[in-house]
């Protein structure tokens, strides 16, 4: 009993019913995407139709939940989350228990006030059916407990919910169109009706005399037919929501051989005006079926496409003549978030701040109190930035895809090379002032510690704002993004000259020195007669920000400088599109961040309690295997093994400083390593260590030749070690933020007049001197101890 009670103390109740509105409003978007993917993959389809068993493995907690929900729907019971266990390391979820909704018993409450009791949708009957999944150290979720028997009757659910699949988003119906099921056809026509602006009802159905299954279904406009006249005038008339007008629009499907459903009759014309864009979620109910037609859009006007730096198609020819009316676009983007969206998001932020004061957020609204900008960063984002905020990328995927939510994310990589979030924002316009507002609020939340490098897409307004807010930070552009834009802008050259793309890529990425790039660039311009191309001229002026050879000695964590994080872009495109309702977005974003935290915790655990298998007997590799995380060690070990294929030759040696040429066999690629014998310090011309903090194969080859058996501490960056997250106290960041706010308030009040300013300045100088003295005394006491 003690063990059971102690276990329960570690568990957290999560009494969430997964069969009611929670699924529909919070999880429908994600779950149905998963189920659609399962239907498109034979192995996942087999998984969906299989029976659960102890030891069954899943890629994620979400996959386990989707599977059990599908199993419950097939068997005929509903599910809720009963218990969760959090990691003591970072409070991430490491165990989930899903139970039948009739598990347990309801608590009896005293009802002395005579209040009417709330009717419960599901009665608890003490059912023991459950499944419990736990995350293992290698990242997968495993079924550790399972009870399949129920103490009550189970039956197929009477309510079916449909979410519009993406493949039906823009299709037009036509006679002979085929569907795998009548549900798929029904969902398609409802999606089409929602897009066109009319509602649908089921008019006729025909069943098979053999097994009573459907063999024909006819869907009509809700205004089909005529409103019947009431014979009894005294009888209370039924209030019809939609008047009948004799509309003949209809969509009929019949079941053919091989279980295919074919459109047999179709009439598209309507006798009434259609509403172009639905402004709410439509529900059609018929014969116990509830069908969701469309989800509420976060952005009210779907014609608005927020882009950060629109480029005309003929920029390569008329770059100097591009004229985009930014003010007009900004005005169109105003009020894209309604008042309800603003209040919901603000309430969400206030709740998080009340739960944890380290949660930071900033709002900007217009004169109608509608959201224009919002920024937020939780405690995890702020601590992650403290550890790994030296190299930051600004993800703005909606620049290239106007259907995406205008979400901006500051991100980087941790010591396992996993993606980390350092703060997010929703932006409506893309002016320099908006970016300055964003950067100022972000860096204030991060304790005013500026990053070493900040990599973004190419955008002039953003670049100007970064230069003003982060004057000491190296601002870089994604090389791949520049090359992709070049392919669009110089499409005629790419089409005419098949070799141009390959040669431009080699010109940008292969040169090892600036002189080699300049020579290669000139060669490309001359070969293809592009001296007068305005786009290439503009790129050449900013070459220090996007050509790798110019910033190879800038720390970028070997992640953000050369290519964009494709996995992060895929996440944006899958979940954060403009059709995503704000509550759904919040739920999905929380789930995504929780998943990142869980994966980081798993890797932390694996690195702490496991040691990599050494592939060489090197003492140097043995040394760093105890220090680096497994992921980083594997990268260094690959460099060490690759170094064995190089040979060195001395170029110069004055006794203290030696210069070596390191060349790979059978190639002409050569790097120079400058070695200081007094401190065992080496510097390579490839600058790999400067850019990512990991020693290159060239230096390792010199160390091997000179019998250097250990790596000096100067080459071991803490951010790549197992101890990367030791020694930081979040209170320091919180204290700084609070003092920063107080200082701003002090400055505003102290500058109202000359007399007040003089007094405020004198008082501040006295207070500052006392703070410095107290800090010195505190330091002296700590030293004496």
Question: How would you describe what is shown here?
Answer:
InterPro entries: FAR1_DNA_bnd_dom, FHY3/FAR1, MULE_transposase_dom, Znf_PMZ, Znf_SWIM. With 785 residues, the protein is of the alpha+beta class. Helix content is 39%, strand content 19%. The protein folds into six domains: 2-107 and 122-147, no CATH class; 166-227 and 242-292, no CATH class; 298-477 and 564-593, no CATH class; 479-554; 619-716, no CATH class; 730-784. The strands form five sheets. A seven-stranded mixed sheet has the order 14-15-18-17-16-19-20, sandwiched between helices. It has a six-stranded antiparallel sheet with strand order 1-3-4-5-6-2. Strands 7-11-10-9-8 form a five-stranded antiparallel sheet, with helices on one face. Strand 21 and strand 22 (657-664) form a beta hairpin. Helix 14 runs antiparallel to helix 15 (514-528). The longest helix is centred in the last third of the chain and has 31 residues, at 754-784. It is globular. Residues 1-46, 157-164, 277-335 and 560-565 have low confidence and may be disordered.
Feature tags:
785 residues; alpha+beta; nucleus; zinc ion binding; 39% helix
Summarize the structure.
Residues 669-707 form the SWIM-type domain. With 785 residues, the chain is an alpha+beta fold.
Radius of gyration: 32 Å
Poorly predicted runs: 1-46, 157-164, 277-335, 560-565
Provide the number of structural domains. Answer: 6
What is the arithmetic mean of pLDDT?
75
Task: Give the CA-based shape.
Answer: globular
Characterize the biggest β-sheet: 7 strands, mixed
**Which structural class do you get from the secondary structure elements?**
alpha+beta
How many strands?
A: 24
Share of residues in helices: 25-40%
Strand line-up in the sheet with most strands: 14-15-18-17-16-19-20
Measured between the Cα atoms of the first and last residue, the distance is 46 Å
């Amino acid at each position: 009993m003690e063990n059971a009670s102690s276990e329960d103390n570690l568990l957290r109740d999560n009494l969430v019913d997964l069969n009611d509105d929670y699924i529909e409003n919070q999880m429908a978007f994600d779950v149905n995407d998963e189920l659609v993917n399962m239907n498109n993959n034979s192995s996942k389809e087999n998984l969906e139709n299989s029976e659960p068993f102890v030891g069954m493995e899943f890629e994620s907690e979400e996959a386990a939940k989707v599977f059990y929900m599908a199993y419950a729907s097939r068997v005929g019971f509903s599910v809720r989350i009963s218990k969760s266990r959090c990691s003591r390391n970072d409070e991430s979820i490491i165990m989930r228990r899903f139970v039948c909704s009739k598990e347990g018993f309801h608590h009896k409450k005293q009802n002395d006030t005579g209040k009417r009791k709330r009717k419960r949708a599901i009665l608890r009957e003490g059912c023991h059916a459950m499944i419990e999944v736990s995350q293992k150290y290698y990242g997968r979720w495993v079924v550790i407990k399972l009870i399949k028997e129920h103490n009550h009757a189970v039956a197929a659910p009477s309510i079916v919910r449909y979410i519009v699949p993406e493949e039906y988003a823009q299709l037009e119906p036509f006679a002979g169109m085929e569907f795998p099921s009548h549900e798929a056809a029904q969902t398609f026509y409802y999606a089409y009706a929602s897009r066109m602006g009319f509602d649908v009802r089921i008019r006729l159905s025909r069943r098979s005399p053999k097994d009573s299954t459907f063999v024909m279904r006819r869907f009509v406009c809700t205004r089909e037919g005529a409103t019947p006249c009431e014979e009894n005038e005294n009888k209370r008339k039924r209030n019809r929501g939609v008047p009948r007008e004799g509309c003949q629009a209809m969509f009929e499907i019949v079941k053919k051989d091989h279980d295919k459903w074919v459109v047999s009759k179709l009439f598209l014309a309507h006798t009434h005006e259609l509403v172009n864009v639905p402004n709410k979620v439509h529900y059609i109910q018929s014969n116990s079926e509830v069908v969701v037609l469309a989800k509420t859009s976060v952005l009210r006007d779907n014609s608005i496409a927020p882009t950060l730096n629109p480029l005309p198609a003929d920029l390569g020819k008329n770059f100097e003549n591009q004229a985009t009316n930014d003010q007009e676009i900004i005005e169109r983007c105003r009020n894209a978030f309604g008042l309800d969206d603003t209040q919901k998001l603000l309430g969400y932020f206030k709740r998080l701040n009340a739960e944890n004061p380290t949660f930071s957020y900033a709002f900007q609204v217009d004169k109608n109190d509608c959201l224009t900008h919002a920024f937020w960063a939780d405690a995890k984002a702020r601590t992650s930035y403290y550890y790994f905020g030296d190299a930051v990328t600004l993800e703005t995927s909606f620049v290239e895809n106007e259907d995406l939510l205008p979400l901006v994310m500051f991100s980087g990589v941790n010591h396992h090379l996993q993606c980390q979030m350092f703060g997010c924002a929703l932006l409506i316009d893309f002016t320099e002032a908006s970016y300055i507002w964003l950067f100022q609020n972000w860096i204030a939340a991060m304790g005013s510690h500026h990053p070493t490098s900040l990599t973004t897409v190419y955008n002039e307004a953003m670049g100007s704002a970064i230069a003003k807010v982060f004057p000491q930070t190296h601002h870089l552009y994604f090389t791949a993004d520049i090359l992709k834009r070049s392919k669009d802008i110089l499409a005629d050259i790419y089409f005419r000259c098949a070799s141009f793309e390959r040669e431009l890529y080699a010109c940008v990425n292969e040169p090892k020195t600036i002189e080699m790039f300049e020579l290669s660039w000139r060669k490309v311009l001359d070969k293809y007669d592009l001296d007068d191309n305005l786009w290439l001229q503009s790129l050449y002026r900013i070459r220090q920000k996007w050509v790798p050879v110019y910033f190879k000695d800038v720390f970028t964590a070997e992640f953000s400088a050369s290519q964009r994080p494709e996995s992060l872009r895929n996440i944006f495109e899958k979940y954060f599109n403009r059709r995503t309702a704000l509550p759904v977005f919040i739920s999905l974003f929380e789930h995504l961040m929780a998943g990142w935290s869980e994966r980081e915790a798993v890797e932390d655990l694996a690195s702490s309690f496991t040691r990599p298998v050494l592939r060489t007997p090197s003492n140097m590799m043995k040394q760093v295997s105890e220090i680096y995380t497994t992921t980083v060690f594997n990268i260094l070990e690959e460099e060490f093994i690759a170094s064995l294929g190089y040979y060195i030759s001395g170029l110069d040696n004055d006794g203290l400083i030696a210069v070596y040429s390191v060349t790979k066999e059978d190639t002409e690629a050569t790097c120079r390593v400058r070695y200081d014998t007094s401190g065992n310090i080496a510097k390579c011309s490839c600058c790999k260590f400067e850019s990512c903090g990991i020693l290159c194969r060239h230096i390792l080859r010199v160390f091997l030749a000179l019998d250097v058996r250990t790596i000096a501490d100067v080459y071991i960056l803490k951010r790549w070690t197992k101890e990367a997250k030791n020694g930081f106290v979040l209170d320091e960041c919180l204290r700084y933020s609070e003092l920063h706010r107080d200082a701003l308030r002090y400055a505003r009040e102290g500058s109202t007049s000359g007399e007040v300013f003089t007094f405020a300045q004198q008082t501040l100088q006295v207070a500052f001197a006392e703070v410095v003295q107290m800090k010195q005394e505190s330091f002296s006491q700590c030293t004496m101890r």
